[in-house]
Write a structure and sequence with these properties.
Elements (H helix, E strand, L loop, with lengths): L2 E5 L6 E7 L9 H11 L8 H4 L4 E5 L1 E2 L2 E2 L4 E6 L7 H4 L26 H8 L5 H7 L4 H16 L4 E9 L2 E2 L8 H5 L12 H16 L6 E8 L15 H10 L4 E6 L36 E2 L2 E2 L4 E7 L10 E3 L6 E3 L10 H24 L4 H24 L1
């Protein structure tokens, strides 16, 4: 029901987003949209590119007088660095007169762990730049823009989203340390890693410094938490409607994410059932049953159960190393060091912001699926009716 497509290259003129399926009548906060783009650019361990770009989204279509019209929404995020790359990234058959920047040689040495080699072979490119420009995580700025509008829709119905960094390299929060939504939301946007444990955060920073000094990179993990969730989003009746599967795919498709966890994630595989499943207890009349724990991460059978949604992403180290790994030259087929592109030492905090955006988008899609309508007012009526049904169901049982 809700979908988006992105276009654009890392050093091209701009990123473009088309978001389709947004209902009419939603007030759009442009400042909040751009605040999310700024959050994606922060975090300790980011590279020089973040000193050049100051991302802002221009709304080109689908919004009139500050409200969505129900038509597709078009967004444009200009690349300020384009001025330095015109001689390399021009669109025309011949370089335009007056093109600025440097004319860079083609890239022929693929980086292990990146899309370089597989992409060049798939599409038949001799210059790997045709691959790396689109495969770059720069594209995630467009996802954050789309996700920001999705989270504004969810906020209309009191669903809020936050994230925190839980691991950098082998430094991680204890398994029994459950970060509440309030703790995650309280992390300042300018915090170096947005880790809720100050002591662990300092050790993480030191690990990033050591990796930078060694010409290496570090990955890590983050958790996205959504609170205020209604019961009944998603479905157990078909595999592709299960919400946990949809969330896992949305987070796994973020650049460098290699694993996803729901709730306690892989820990559920090694605990006995008595320490995994969340007990169901009576609650006050008119309220859904209470849960003393949330190991399931708010999802049972692919359906939201009213508890906070908890989704974790596990990010591998970035593929560009300042002391490159061995590779080959695609021109000579001889051994050669992998290419070096301007990059980050660690981008886990940025990935967490992208994770928020992707989780927001999937939850908004499931929300529209459950409470659908062409306008926000229509959706609100359906949402209120569904909430009242749940309240009456448990009120009537209490009366018995």
């Amino acid at each position: 029901m809700l979908r988006f497509l992105t276009a654009g290259e890392s050093h091209g003129q701009a990123l473009v987003v088309t978001l389709d399926g947004m209902p009419a009548g939603l007030e759009i906060d442009g400042d909040a949209l751009n605040a999310q783009l700024r959050r994606r650019q922060g975090g300790y361990g980011r590279g020089r590119r973040m000193q050049i770009e100051s991302d802002r989204a221009e709304i080109l279509a689908g919004v009139r007088h500050g409200r969505t019209t129900g038509a597709p929404i078009a967004l444009l995020i200009r690349n300020k660095d384009w001025v330095n790359w015109q001689q390399t990234m021009y669109v025309e058959p011949e370089m335009p007169e007056g093109a600025s920047g440097a004319k860079r040689a083609g890239v022929t040495r693929p980086r292990p762990g990146h899309a370089d080699l597989a992409g060049a072979l798939k599409y038949g490119h001799d210059d790997i730049r045709n691959v790396l420009e689109r495969a770059s995580a720069r594209e995630t700025a467009a996802r954050v823009a789309a996700g920001s509008l999705a989270r504004q829709l969810l906020a209309r119905f009191n669903v809020r989203i936050a994230s925190h960094v839980s691991a950098i390299g082998d430094i991680m929060l204890p398994l029994d340390r459950v970060i509440s939504f309030a703790e995650a939301a309280a992390q300042p946007d300018d915090a170096p890693l947005r880790c809720a444990d100050a002591e662990a955060q300092q050790r993480m920073i030191a690990a990033i410094d050591a990796a930078r000094e060694a010409g290496d990179t570090l990955g890590g993990a983050f958790e996205v938490i959504a609170t205020g969730m209604p019961i009944g989003l998603g479905s157990y009746v078909q595999w592709d409607r299960k919400l946990d599967g949809r969330l896992a795919q949305a987070v796994a498709c973020i650049h460098a994410i290699k694993a996803v966890g729901i709730g306690i994630g892989p820990e559920a595989a090694i605990r006995p059932g008595s320490r995994v499943h969340d007990e169901i207890l009576p609650a006050a009349p008119g309220s859904a049953p209470a849960r003393p724990t949330n190991n399931a991460g708010g999802l049972e059978g692919g359906v939201t159960n009213g508890e906070d949604i908890r989704v974790s992403g596990f990010m591998k180290p970035i593929a560009t190393l300042m002391k490159p790994l061995r590779s080959i030259d695609m021109t000579t087929l001889d051994e050669a060091p992998a290419a070096i592109e301007r990059s980050d030492v660690c981008a886990v905090p940025a990935a967490a912001v992208v994770g928020e955006a992707m989780v927001a988008f999937v939850l908004a899609d499931a929300f529209l699926e459950k409470f659908g309508g062409d306008s926000v007012d229509e959706i609100e009526a359906h949402y209120t009716a569904s909430r009242d049904l749940v309240e009456r169901r448990f009120a009537s049982r209490a009366a018995r």
